[in-house]
UniProtKB/TrEMBL annotation:
Keywords: Flavoprotein, Oxidoreductase. It comes from Geosporobacter ferrireducens. The keyword Flavoprotein applies. The keyword Repressor does not apply. Gene3D superfamilies: Aldolase class I. This is NADH:flavin oxidoreductase/NADH oxidase N-terminal domain-containing protein.
Length: 426
């Protein structure tokens, strides 16, 4: 197979500012969203959340993408997921303030990282009181079986989906009040809006045709764009461009072509989103509950992937590059770099140099090695002794107990929680 991964030793490329409207992202490094499952019962951030984002902010990434925050109670991925409401938006303001303040303390008064908050409905991955409570847009045999549901399980109604638009807009308004620079209408990793994109077999106005499958997402974007209380918010999206499932279960594939990537529809959607005013897109792939190797290539995990990790990284980097080249004016954030450990800075620089994306995003590195950005920018390296070792322990915690962090590099905090989880036999 052909590898499209590029390398460059020119790490000064990361120091380039990235402009989005009147905003300036101070460097080309993003901290990707990493759900930590450490909110209180009202969905507010706790000391653990503040600690995590303070460390990330002091680490120097120019774009800080805050993890999945629920738009409604029944849309949470677990009882400890963040959830923004009229009652607690000030706690989110405190979170945004601490990010901005910590970054300034470290890099000076004129330093302004861009903050994006990811708003989401967990769809088939909702959990209430620790129990899976799937809200599905369409049946997907492979994914249904994993949740222990069959064709008799009800598909969410059009009326329920209609009601979500206002909830997304309200979450966006509160995010604006809380001071975030932008909001991410999350449509990835198999959650509700992501699942709708491949609802080919759903009946009614949210299923079947491309227009129907993308309707809710487009309606939400349009409504936020028009809402006076959201004025000035950067509208962004973390968007799947490939699910890793064949037609008619997956998005980013075509009929009769198995698992081959086909970006025809994702490109059509990206074009429409840009026309509606989306300015920043973080591209991603896969479903972390079913095929984690597609989104976060790993060395150790709960199954042996059908391809090697280099192949998975290559797919992520190549297809993000394909998108970036198709929409050269738009800012796309890329992924697929943490697996390269201390060589990641050179792979990312290769992508920047060859125009495969405008910002290099790191997920697991943000919790394993929050100073990774500073080390790239100031010391031209990522330290071998600090990098994520792609052991999947954080993912294991996320799926089993919700609360998660880096068990290896942030062991003082997360190893005891991991051990307790193991001892409890979850
Ligand atoms: C524990 C954990 C939590 C995550 N939470 C989120 C999330 O809240 N939102 C999201 O879009 N992606 C989430 N991701 C995916 C990451 O943002 C990222 O795409 C993935 O880890 C691959 O990037 P990496 O190779 O740099 O780690 C999560 C990943 C892990 C391992
Ligand atoms: S637990 Fe830490 S080292 Fe292991 S995959 Fe997660 S972030 Fe990386």
């Amino acid at each position: 197979m052909q590898f499209d991964i590029k390398f460059s030793e020119d790490l000064s490329l990361y120091r380039e500012e990235v402009k989005i409207g009147h905003h300036v992202i101070p460097n080309a490094i993003a901290s990707h969203p990493m759900e930590g499952g450490d909110a209180d019962e009202k969905g507010s951030p706790t000391d653990m959340t503040f600690r995590k984002y303070k460390r990330i902010a002091k680490g120097g990434a120019g774009l800080i993408w805050v993890e999945a925050v629920s738009i409604c109670k029944d849309g949470r991925s677990n009882d400890k997921q963040l959830w923004i409401t009229e009652d607690n938006w000030r706690d989110f303001k405190a979170l945004n303030d601490i990010i901005k303040k910590s970054a300034k303390e470290e890099f000076g008064e004129d330093y302004h990282p861009m903050t994006i908050i990811q708003i989401n409905h967990a769809g088939r991955y909702c959990k209430v009181k620790g129990k899976p409570s799937p809200i599905i847009a369409t049946h997907k045999k492979n994914l249904d079986e994993r949740l222990g549901i069959d064709e008799s399980y009800p598909v969410v109604t059009d009326e329920y989906l209609d009601s979500l638009k206002e909830k997304y807009v309200q979450a966006a308004r509160l995010s604006k009040k809380a001071g975030f620079d932008g909001v991410d209408i999350k449509a990835c990793h198999g959650y509700l809006l992501s699942e709708l994109l491949s609802a080919y077999e759903r009946k009614g106005k949210y299923g079947g045709s491309f227009e129907n499958r993308t309707r809710l997402m487009m309606d939400i974007v349009e409504a936020i764009k028009k809402d006076a209380a959201c004025e000035g918010l950067v509208i962004s999206s973390r968007l799947n461009i490939y699910d890793g499932l064949p037609y008619p279960q997956g998005w980013g594939v075509s009929e009769g072509k198995g698992l081959e990537v086909d970006l025809t529809e994702p490109k059509k959607l990206v074009k429409s989103l840009i026309c509606k005013g989306v300015q920043l897109i973080s591209l991603t792939m896969g479903n972390p509950y079913a095929f984690p190797h597609i989104n976060k290539p790993f060395d150790l995990g709960n199954y042996i992937p059908p391809e090697n990790a280099l192949h998975s990284c290559n797919r992520l980097i190549r297809e993000v590059g394909n998108m970036q080249k198709s929409f050269p004016e738009t800012v796309f954030v890329g992924l697929g770099y943490s697996w390269f450990r201390d060589l990641a800075p050179y792979v990312g620089a290769g992508s920047l140099k060859h125009g495969l994306c405008k910002i290099i995003g790191f997920g697991r590195e943000s919790i394993a090695y929050p100073d990774f950005a500073r080390d790239i920018l100031e010391n031209q390296e990522m330290k071998r002794s600090s990098v994520c070792i792609s052991c999947s322990k954080c993912s294991e915690m996320k799926s089993k107990i919700g609360t998660c962090g880096c068990v290896i590099r942030d062991a003082a905090v997360y190893l005891p929680i991991y051990k307790e989880m193991k001892a409890s036999g979850v």
